[in-house]
Design goal:
six-stranded parallel sheet, about 475 residues, alpha/beta, eight-stranded mixed sheet
Length: about 475
């Protein structure tokens, strides 16, 4: 049910605005071949109309006005639509599309599993479709009757044409009320270059109500920009924007306000749907096995003198391109600990210590008064216990995109303060969504006082269900 470019849709919840910097489709000179309609012109500006949801979450963006112009008009338009008898539609089926569904090894895939289960508890029947799954050799089907979910994994070893033909057949068979693309460019191509997908994806979802969740954008933005990433991003961007233009989504979301601003600068109106963690929240501590694991991996015996130590927890990877200024922060933590007569230990769960690029070796050499221990990958339940057993969290993510970090979301949902430094290039934008703003601590003048007097933990085990409800409400409003 894609909107027509030439005319305004009858739906009062939508309006058109001009989209800039979409790659203009360029035909193959021969007029044949699979690439004849691909948008390959990277520098051609193209005026295109794209539907934008007007509701309380996503403000109107008329030409010549700011993004948040006339919210009262937006609300009145929605209310008038209800009074005209259009009412809220009932959504019964939804398809969640992602790259892979290999449990425990694909972050967005795990996100889809949790989101699907939460939507199932709200009465929806969910189908999860992995379009490019490297973990299977052939099409794999799994059913979860308890969660009202069906999972289909299409092998990355099969040709694009075959996969998309199969996907179109499955979606036609399932007849969903909505299709939601959980988008990460690297899930569909190792370099995030969506040349083939831009050709095959739009026909697969044509005629469907489409929602797109932008978990990632193109490379080379913000404080993580390097010459190499800038070149890669310039190659990725026209394909990503061209794909969005061709798919005609009714609703676009992203995980953080910086991405929202970046999309707006390219003429794409997007809402912010907060990220939830892939780690279910428990109140178990598991201090016994955690203390043993710390000691077995070269750390101190925390069972004997736990009160003498401040334990800072890390979870997940530390990417080199994030350029995390860790050493000044860690040195300051040592100074704060000395004044409070506490020793500092950093314990990492996950893959931060693996590989030649691990930061732990240099840190051990340059910061001899701090202990660094890696306890390796753990199950989701053990990660929850780990987060409940440490005193503070450390995140290497740049502040401007902290809202897209699943590890930070896990810490916040466990009520754990997250200390982040670096990448504070958009201080005017919220770093994370409510109610977690006060749990994100910068390396500033307030840090020492906060560490010495932390607030009581407030757990948020219902966050996934809350986000699922937000999404469902947006889809219902958009379908009016």
């Amino acid at each position: 049910m894609g909107a027509k470019l030439a005319s305004r849709p009858a739906d009062p919840s939508y309006q058109f605005y001009q989209c800039h910097r979409f790659a203009e489709p360029v035909k193959n000179p021969r007029g044949t071949g699979r690439n004849r309609h691909l948008g390959l012109a990277m520098d051609i500006e193209f005026q295109a109309a794209v539907p934008v949801l007007r509701n309380d979450n996503i403000a109107a963006h008329p030409l010549g006005r700011g993004r948040n112009a006339a919210p009262h008009q937006m609300r009145r338009s929605f209310q008038q639509g209800l009074r005209k008898g259009q009412g809220n539609p009932t959504i019964r089926r939804i398809v969640l599309i992602c790259g892979g569904l290999d449990e425990g090894r694909n972050g967005v895939g795990d996100y889809c599993r949790r989101l699907g289960a939460a939507l199932g508890k709200l009465g929806l029947e969910c189908f999860l479709l992995a379009m490019n799954d490297p973990s299977v050799d052939v099409e794999t089907v799994t059913e979860d009757p308890a969660a009202a979910m069906k999972l289909v994994q299409l092998s990355a070893r099969v040709s694009l044409r075959t996969r998309y033909a199969r996907a179109a057949a499955l979606i036609a068979e399932w007849r969903p009320d909505w299709t939601s693309l959980q988008f990460v460019p690297y899930s569909f191509h190792p370099k995030g270059l969506l040349l083939g997908d831009m050709h095959w994806f739009p026909p697969t979802v044509r005629g469907r109500k489409l929602h797109v969740m932008m978990h990632e954008l193109w490379a080379g933005y913000g404080s993580t920009r390097t010459a190499k990433l800038a070149v890669l991003g310039a190659m990725q961007r026209p394909f990503i924007l061209g794909l969005l233009h061709r798919m005609r989504p009714r609703l676009i979301d992203t995980t953080n306000h910086y991405y929202q601003q970046l999309l707006t600068s390219r003429g794409i109106e997007a809402g912010v749907l907060p990220l939830f963690s892939n780690i279910p929240v428990t109140t178990e501590t598991g201090e016994g096995w955690i203390y043993d694991a710390v000691q077995q991996n070269g750390g101190p015996d925390l069972k004997q003198d736990r009160e003498r130590w401040w334990v800072f927890g890390m979870f997940g990877k530390v990417a080199r391109e994030w350029d995390w200024p860790a050493e000044p922060l860690l040195a300051r933590l040592v100074e704060i600990g000395a004044r409070a007569r506490r020793k500092i230990i950093v314990v990492s769960a996950g893959h931060a210590e693996s590989g030649a690029a691990s930061p732990f070796g240099p840190w051990r050499e340059r910061l001899p008064h701090t202990r660094f221990v890696a306890i390796g990958p753990r199950s989701p339940n053990e990660i929850s216990q780990f987060l409940n057993s440490v005193d503070f969290g450390l995140s290497p993510y740049p502040l401007f995109v902290l809202g897209k970090s699943g590890s930070a979301a896990a810490m916040l949902e466990h009520g754990l303060p997250v200390i982040a430094s670096g990448g504070d290039i958009a201080p005017h934008l919220p770093v994370v969504s409510a109610p977690f703003e006060t749990l994100v601590w910068r390396n500033d003048s307030r840090l020492e006082a906060r560490i010495n007097a932390p607030a009581k933990r407030l757990y948020r085990p219902e966050r996934c269900a809350e986000v699922a409800q937000m999404l469902l409400q947006q889809l219902e409003r958009s379908a009016i």
